[in-house]
Write a structure and sequence with these properties.
This is IS66 family transposase ISGob1. Residues 44-54 have a biased composition (Low complexity). Residues 55-68 have a biased composition (Pro residues). It is a single chain. This protein is α/β, with parallel strands linked by helices. It has 14 helices and seven strands. The strands form two sheets. Strands 5-4-3-6-7 form a five-stranded mixed β-sheet, with helices on both faces. Strand 1 and strand 2 (146-148) form a beta hairpin.
Length: 480
Amino acid sequence: MTPVPQPPELPDNLPPAVVAYIRALEATITALVAEVAELKARLNPNSTNSSKPPSSDPPQVKPAPPKAPSGRRRGGQPGHPRAERTLLPPDEIRTLKPSVCRDCSRPLAGDDPAPAIHQVHELPVIKPHVTEYRCHRLRCHHCGTTTVAPVPSEARTGYGPRAQAVAAVLTGSCRLGKRGTSQLFGDLFGRPLSPAMVCKLQHTTAQARAPVAEAALVYTRAHPANVDETGWTQGRQRSWLWVAVTTLVVAFLIRRTRGRSAFDDLRGGSAQVHTTDRYPVYTHLPKHRRQVCWAHLRRDFQAMIDRANPGSGLGADLLAGSDELFEHWYRVRDGTLARSTCARVYARGVGARVRAHLGRGVECGCPKTAAVCRELLALEPSLWTFVRVPGVEPTNNAAEREVRHAVCWRKTSFGTDSEAGSRFVERILTVIASCRRQGRNVLVFLTDAVTAHRTGATPPTLIPVPAQQPSVRSPALAGC
């Protein structure tokens, strides 16, 4: 926006009323120019300068600049791990031997001690295993009372634990709707299943996972976590889906509020480090127990640049400082730079420069940029928690990635209709995300949980054993 030039001095012989009118027009023009700049800024938010997802970017948004070519060929690079099909124990072996030499056509005989193996994997026709309970009614010869043999408690739903677990996986992990799951049961398994029965199986599966999800929630409160929230709908009312992500366990909750009470339900007064964005509900956290997401800050810095006002240069300086920060952090994450060295030499230098830039931003003349700079100066200790606390990342990308599956599910299912539906969603998401991080089979886990619930046995747990190591490493900037 081109600034309004300073008006020339008015002649002394003008009437006071005319001078006052001109000054009023000048003030009006200044206010209108500021309002136009504000409205233009509202039209320009995209995924690079705000929290909007990339899928919402209009066509005119310029894509990210292409990366410089590395000079290497496409595909797998020398030294990368081989990805080969796993050989399974064969159910049938067919021996193939050449009968004649391919060169001279002489007969061949004998065996190859190490023959080449070529396996063909086929899926069998799935036929449901049906157990029929015939409950006899017998009349007492003495008193005439008729007694019916009861159906065992583990058989009252009419579906076995594995069938119930498959229905939960199809709806929760594969994001199929009730009718889609019903059709798949008929087409793939040869077993008709009504959409209403899919809902019933979901509710019983949620009950089976209640102790599992509660234990996972308690575990996450005792560890540093990435925390995030996203919109949800329950019974046509606005709700929010909350997530806490640790290295090996993830916990989800659905609440009707986005306020402090929902955060307390999720974290329960945890004394661990919380990696978050700058949503105001997190401001009560002590600064030394909070890490502000630098991926969100980068978008704020880009927004400063895109405003094209006196604060644009400051945004470029802050963005350059974050580039330097992540350049050092990549080395820490890859093991080529010690964390102590990063904290002592590199981070302190970057921190001093970022602090100086934020101080200049308070006086830059752009109200929005100045407000962001004042907020970051007040939160400055929370910008560098990852430098001194092992296991803490500078971004909240882990939570962003875990919540993405739920966002895609919400867009196709439009949320849930009841409290029971919300309990199913939060518990199935907890199981899926935690099992994926631990490298465990979701279907096997759910089958064991349903079986334990029906028989009264001890349910399986998502709590990792002490010797278990993280199977997932989250890149610093990917996926946000």
